[in-house]
Design a protein that fits this description.
The protein is an alpha+beta fold. 55% of the residues lie in helices and 15% in strands. It folds into two domains: 41-167, no CATH class; 173-243, Nucleic acid-binding proteins (OB fold (Dihydrolipoamide Acetyltransferase, E2P)). It has helices at residues 2-29, 36-71, 81-90, 93-110, 114-117, 121-140, 144-155, 160-165, and strands at residues 175-183, 187-192, 197-201, 207-208, 218-222, 225-226, 229-231, 234-237. Strands 4-8-5-1-2-3-7-6 form an eight-stranded mixed beta sheet, with no helix packed on it. A hairpin with a 4-residue loop joins strand 2 and strand 3. Helix 2 (36-71) runs antiparallel to helix 4. The chain is elongated and about 95 Å long. The model is unreliable at 4-9 (pLDDT under 50).
């Protein structure tokens, strides 16, 4: 019994000495105790920062989808391998670089939480990227950006007005989106959204996904234009939901 008491006394003295050394280091280095609300506030601000960053990522990703749909490049993969190549070449790479940078920053913020730092960096980054791409496609397929564009134009919002008004700068020479004005013997006359009127010729090589075309149909024409004439590689009619 005496031995056990002696051992407990020795352990207590060692613990006390260790505590004293730790408190001494804290005192010497000027480390101050912070209240609980300080850590709660940091957590709230970090969570708010993650939410804002994720919302920004969704906006950028969905805007990229909106640009591709507006120019018509979103629809040309239906015309085969060349269509997929045109889609890749039409991607707004500047937006893509911004999205990657924001994902890196968001990953740094998210990794403060246990559900993220306990997983491999590559896995969590891939999951975050997939979530952003999926969310961007879902939002980009809605009328969200069309409404923002109209609101920005009506209210002259700085930055947003120019961003939505310069969509034509993303246009490719081999993708044309517009409205059929008149059917002809060899094809149709249609007006692009930028006002150009083009004569579209349907040839044997044309991949006409929709053959029962009529005036006032909104279509995407795939092919190079020369002197106001396009020998179409592909023609696809768009539904009202495709042009929101």
């Amino acid at each position: 019994m005496n031995d056990e008491r002696a051992q407990l006394r020795t352990d207590g003295e060692a613990t006390g000495e260790a505590k004293s050394r730790i408190l001494g280091v804290i005192h010497d280095r000027g480390v101050a105790m912070r209240p609980r609300w300080h850590f709660v506030l940091r957590g709230v601000l970090a969570a708010l920062g993650c939410a804002i960053m994720f919302a920004t990522l969704l906006y950028l990703a969905s805007f990229a989808v909106f640009v591709l749909r507006y120019t018509g490049a979103w629809f040309v993969p239906a015309f085969g391998v060349r269509g997929w190549l045109v889609l890749l070449l039409s991607l707004p790479w500047f937006l893509g670089i911004m999205i990657v940078l924001f994902i890196v920053v968001l990953e740094i913020l998210v990794r403060r939480y246990s559900f993220a730092y306990r997983r491999p960096l590559l896995l969590s980054s891939a999951a975050l990227s997939a979530l952003v791409i999926f969310g961007g496609v879902v939002v980009g397929m809605t009328s969200f950006h069309g409404r923002v564009s109209r609101f920005a134009s009506e209210n002259a919002l700085p930055g947003f007005e120019n961003m939505y008004h310069e969509l034509e700068s993303w246009h490719r020479d081999d993708v044309h989106r517009g409205v059929i004005k008149k059917m002809t013997e060899k094809g149709f006359i249609f007006r692009e959204y930028d006002g150009d009127v083009l004569n579209v010729v349907i040839v044997p090589k044309t991949n006409a996904i929709d053959t029962d075309l009529a005036p006032d149909d909104i279509v995407v024409v795939f092919g190079r234009e020369g002197r106001g004439i396009i020998e179409a590689d592909g023609v696809r009619r768009l539904s009202p939901s495709d042009v929101e």
